[in-house]
Amino acid sequence: MDYYNRLIRYRKYDLPMSWRLLDDHGSDVFHNLSIDEALAKTYRHSENTLNTLRFWESDKAVVIGRFQCVHKEVNLEYCKKNKISVARRFTGGGAVFHDLGNLNYSLRLHQSHDYVPRGLKELYETFI
């Protein structure tokens, strides 16, 4: 949190912020994706919603985006033989491979606050 507060001040924002940090130790990909979806959809119109940063890992899995065709993106036979789970996230994007040691993060921001960047590029520049 200290790093982020310094970053916000550097960007000339001086607002009180409340954050929730979730460090999830579960490794089931389906559980992790469902938590992300629930965080994104819960209280989306409430201004009292805490901004949330969540860290998580998953066992071996291929995760595809919402609009991808699993048969075009994933070798299902290989995944079955090697006990690699295949899951679909509720957001778009490409196919990615997950495994323990690959740290994932989820960032949920309340968009009505002035300090939340509006564009994707500015969002990445601010938080990554």
Rg, Cα atoms, Å: 17 Å
How many strands?
6
Helix content: 25-40%
**Main β-sheet description:** 3 strands, mixed
Overall 3D shape: elongated
Judged by helices, strands and strand pairing, the structural class is alpha/beta
Q: What is the succession of H and E elements? A: HEHEEHHEEEH
Strand order of the largest sheet: 1-2-6
Mean pLDDT: 81
Strand content: 15-25%
Count of discrete alpha- or pi-helical segments spanning 4 or more residues: 5
Low-confidence stretches: 1-15
Taken together, the total number of domains comes to: 2
Please give the alpha-carbon distance between the first and last residues: 14 Å
Characterization of this structure:
There is one protein chain. The chain is of the alpha/beta class and 128 residues long. It contains five helices and six strands. Strands 1-2-6 form a three-stranded mixed sheet, with helices on one face. Strands 4-3-5 form a three-stranded mixed sheet. The longest helix is centred in the N-terminal third of the chain and has 13 residues, at 29-41. The chain is elongated and about 50 Å long. Mean pLDDT is 81; it is low at 1-15.
Notable characteristics:
5 helices; 3-stranded mixed beta sheet; 128 residues; disordered N terminus; 6 strands; 31% helix; alpha/beta; 2 domains
Short description:
The protein is of the alpha/beta class and 128 residues long. The chain has helices at 2-10, 29-41, 70-73, 76-81, 120-127, and strands spanning 19-23, 51-56, 61-64, 85-88, 96-98, 104-108.
